[in-house]
Amino acid sequence: MTKDEFEQLVAEGIEAIPPKFLELLDNVAIVIEDKPSAEQAVKLRLRHGWTLFGLYEGVPQGKRGPYYGGVLPDKITIFQRPIEQAARNPEDMQEIVKNTVWHEIAHHFGMDEEEVREAEAKRKA
């Protein structure tokens, strides 16, 4: 899949987020990278064979204090190659991208991994 085609999938994933949440996104950039960088892999202690579809880096909204400001945007990175390798077909890839975008945006709003997984289960039920 070309970078442009993948960017379109990510854009569709963002558009699938309910407007009430999109309006609340604050100081966050969503970017696409081929795969996690060596620095990200070390930081996350990724082991060989582990798959990472996306990553949120920043200060979640719920942890921002009254003096928050003047900082670089938070960053949500969607990793193209791991998603392509995991997807069985184009529809599966679209679903993985949509779920990954949702998952990382949930972290931006302050949800930890357990809370995100619980919310995902409810969303998919």
Write the layout of secondary structure elements.
Layout: H1 3-15, H2 19-22, E1 28-33, H3 38-44, E2 54-57, E3 74-79, H4 80-86, H5 90-108, H6 113-124
Parallel strand pairs: 1-3
Antiparallel strand pairs: 2-3
Protein name: Metallopeptidase family protein
InterPro entries: Zincin_1, Zincin_1_sf
Pfam family, one: Zincin_1
At a glance:
It holds the Pfam family Zincin_1. The chain has 125 residues and is an alpha+beta fold.
Description:
- The protein has 125 residues and is α+β, with helices and mostly antiparallel strands.
- The chain has a single domain (3-124), classed as 2-Layer Sandwich (Zincin-like).
- The chain has helices spanning 3-15, 19-22, 38-44, 80-86, 90-108, 113-124; strands at residues 28-33, 54-57, 74-79.
- Strands 1-3-2 form a 3-stranded mixed beta sheet.
- Helix 1 packs across helix 5 and helix 5 (90-108) crosses helix 6.
- The mean pLDDT is 91.
- InterPro entries: Zincin_1 (IPR010428), Zincin_1_sf (IPR038555).
- This is Metallopeptidase family protein.
CATH topology: Zincin-like
User: Total domains, how many?
Assistant: 1
Which series of helices and strands comes N to C?
Answer: HHEHEEHHH
Number of helices: 6
Rg of Cα set: 15 Å
Span between termini: 30 Å
Give the beta-strand count: 3
Q: State the strand order across the main sheet.
A: 1-3-2
CATH architecture: 2-Layer Sandwich
Low-confidence stretches: none
CATH class descriptor name: Alpha Beta
Q: Tell the overall outline.
A: globular
Round the mean pLDDT to the nearest integer and report it.
Answer: 91
- The helix/strand class is alpha+beta
Assembly of the depicted chains: single chain
Report helical residue fraction.
Answer: 40-55%
The biggest beta sheet is recorded as: 3 strands, mixed
> What fraction of the residues are assigned to beta strands by DSSP?
5-15%
